[in-house]
Design a protein that fits this description.
This protein has about 650 residues and is α+β, with helices and mostly antiparallel strands. One of its GO terms (molecular function) is ATP binding.
Length: about 650
């Protein structure tokens, strides 16, 4: 695990050093650099976190005649198998690192050929001196971020946007068109960012840059496969279970390849519990870590019980009110605004684990493949009803509107009580369901800010921002897939990498900690999308086939433990001075008016609603505004600095 960076098409004294220095947290063990020979305007570098081949894996790594060089961030888990295959074809290796497999793989199979053979998480830049061109690539699920800027013949890239900000040729400006997507989703969907002119290389894509004319093209090399529902043929449930069991344990085995000890994050959920259980097959010395909040929704007691059953050395990290003071620094590490207080928990969890380890495994990715989120079940049920009784959603909306939130709570697995605002989301979702695209329905059920609320909160100057025109629609070619799989696939184009994974990557790397996710093995994902829907959602049980696997490992009270939604319960911190101070500093009328995006009176009313009702949705809305304001102060105003 490392951080990479570089630039092309121009020269700038000291830039490479500055780009590396600002992300040294991603790789404090050493630095590597490459500058193209004969005055060619290309330079790249990396900060190394030593995990594999501790003595010999220094970058850049070259091929035999040094005509190809690479700087690499991440891990290729199947590097042992790739190396054996490449050596059999005559390639000579100088190191024992996974990185060198990419260089020789490119020589043997080309860029798409090597990418399609790699199993791992990565972002890399590979330079071909003979052709005076380079490739930048990102892993299939987007666990490793990659940013770039291209203007006036100049190209800059980096694992973090803050490396690009080090150039005198780029000045941080706000991408105003990203504000509305941010409020809607609490993140900015790729390829856009909140920085004007800085983009994310999309997940499972590579970028090809030719120095001869400073041109680039971006191509996709993998995407989630969908069966055609009209012709799909399924295997027996037993065959799918056998395949899942084999692939899952093999994925964990590959993720544990390391020259340093490996631990794990452990929650109360089935995903991390199964991951740790699988790890104990390959090691008897596992450290596990969980995070809590000393609140009624705390899952640390359940995680502690699982750890005791598995025999791990368990550690608990508790978030305290004073941890809200960390939020500006966390936003700096994030590069982008992600409107969720849970960032604090991820930061603290990584900080605790990094005191003992350099590598931890986790359970993210299972919900996306095996339907573990409540909204997936809700949308699936609504679609089934709509097909049986056309117009039923319009009929149901007023019924839900007249139903007390306390009763509706029984029908939803929500992190907190649904409340008046949560009920409002459900009613609006139902009333407009039939007229929306699938992706719009997916977003409507999970958003915290409806379009009307956004328009109402914007200042007069910015009310035109409130739109859903920016929102992607489901691809036409996917509309013949099984309904649940179509819904699940949408997550791989935005939700997974821009919401779930980025929170972990930036917070683990803030503490020089590598985070590996066995459920993101593309073989597991591809298997999941060949399964019938009843193996994912079955009679109200989510992740049905995964829970069957848990039945073989755990006693029933652990394997079938009721889902405990993981969120930071802001409502329990409202009266603490640290939280009150943070909100007062960032969202007071003068600060809101100075920023200009929002109506100060409307923000003040939102704060009053949060304090008087303590509703989950209001708390989340406030935190999204707090994080957005902090992002501006860190990166645009530069009134808060950490570099």
């Amino acid at each position: 695990m490392c951080g990479i960076y570089g630039f092309a098409g121009f020269k700038e004294e000291g830039l490479l050093d500055r780009m590396g220095r600002v992300i040294r947290h991603r790789g404090p063990d050493g630095q590597g650099r490459y500058e193209a020979p004969e005055g060619v305007p290309f330079s790249m570098g990396m900060q190394r976190l030593s995990i594999i081949d501790l003595e010999g894996g220094w970058q850049p790594v070259f091929n035999e005649d040094q005509s190809i060089a690479i700087c690499y961030n991440g891990e290729t888990y199947n590097y042992v198998e790739l190396r054996e295959e490449l050596e059999a074809k005559g390639h000579q290796f100088r190191t024992h690192s996974d990185t060198e497999c990419v260089v020789h793989g490119y020589e043997e199979w080309g860029i798409e050929g090597v990418l399609q053979r790699m199993n791992g998480m990565f972002g890399f830049c590979l330079y071909d001196a003979r052709k005076r061109e380079f490739f930048i690539a990102r892993d299939r699920c987007g666990q490793k971020p990659m940013y770039y800027h291209h203007a006036n013949g100049r190209f800059l890239f980096g694992s973090e946007a803050k490396s690009i900000l080090q150039s005198q040729h780029y000045t941080a400006e706000v991408n105003l068109e990203a504000i509305d997507p941010y409020l809607t989703l609490r993140n900015v969907p790729e390829p856009a960012t909140m920085f004007k002119g800085i983009y994310k290389l999309p997940t499972s894509h590579y970028l090809h840059y030719k120095l001869a004319d400073n041109s680039l093209k971006i191509a996709r090399y993998w995407e989630v496969p969908l069966l055609d529902a009209r012709t799909a043929k399924y295997k027996s449930d037993g065959e799918y279970f056998e395949a899942l069991e084999h692939l899952f344990y093999d994925s964990v085995r590959l993720c544990m390849r390391s020259d340093v000890p490996v631990g794990a994050y452990l929650s109360a959920g089935v995903d991390s519990s199964l991951t740790v259980a699988a790890m104990t097959r390959y090691s008897s010395n596992i450290n596990t870590y969980s995070v809590g909040f000393d609140s009624p929704v705390d899952e640390t007691p359940a995680a502690r019980e699982t750890a005791a059953f598995l025999g791990t050395k368990h550690h608990e990290i508790i978030c305290q009110p004073e941890d809200f003071d960390l939020l500006p620094k966390i936003v700096w590490h994030m590069d982008r605004p992600v409107g969720d207080a849970l960032l604090i928990a991820f930061y603290k969890l990584a900080e605790g684990a990094s005191k003992d380890l350099k590598v931890v495994l986790g359970g993210e990715g299972a919900d996306e493949a095996f339907a573990g989120y409540s909204f997936q079940g809700v949308i699936t049920k609504v679609e089934k009803m709509r097909r049986m009784i056309p117009g039923v959603t319009s009929i149901a909306a007023p019924i839900f509107a007249a139903t007390p939130p306390g009763i509706l709570n029984k029908f939803f697995t929500f992190p907190a009580d649904l409340g008046s605002q949560g009920k409002k989301r459900v009613v609006e979702f139902l009333s407009k369901y039939s007229g929306r695209d699938l992706n719009h329905n997916f977003n409507a059920l999970r958003t915290l800010w409806s379009q009307d609320e956004r328009r109402d909160t914007y200042s007069e100057k910015f009310k035109n921002l409130a739109t859903d025109a920016w929102m992607a629609k489901e691809k036409e070619k996917d509309k013949h897939g099984p309904f649940l799989d179509r819904l699940l696939k949408l997550q791989y184009d935005e939700w997974l990498q821009d919401w779930a994974l980025i929170r972990q990557d930036k917070n683990t790397m803030a503490h020089s900690l590598e985070y590996r996710l066995p459920f993101l093995d593309h073989r597991l994902i591809e298997l999941a999308f060949t399964m019938p829907a009843h193996l994912k959602i079955n009679k109200g049980t989510d992740k049905f086939i995964e829970r069957q696997l848990a039945d073989k490992v755990f006693p029933q009270h652990i394997a079938r433990r009721q889902k405990i939604p993981f969120y930071l319960p802001v409502e329990y911190f409202l009266d603490q001075p640290q939280f009150k101070s943070l909100v007062a500093e960032t969202l007071n009328p003068d600060a809101v008016k100075k920023r200009g995006y929002f109506d100060p009176a409307k923000v003040t009313r939102l704060l009053e609603n949060m304090r008087s009702t303590r509703e989950f949705v209001y708390c989340k809305q406030v935190m999204s505004l707090v994080v957005l304001e902090l992002w501006h102060r860190v990166f645009v105003d530069k009134s808060i600095r950490f570099d």
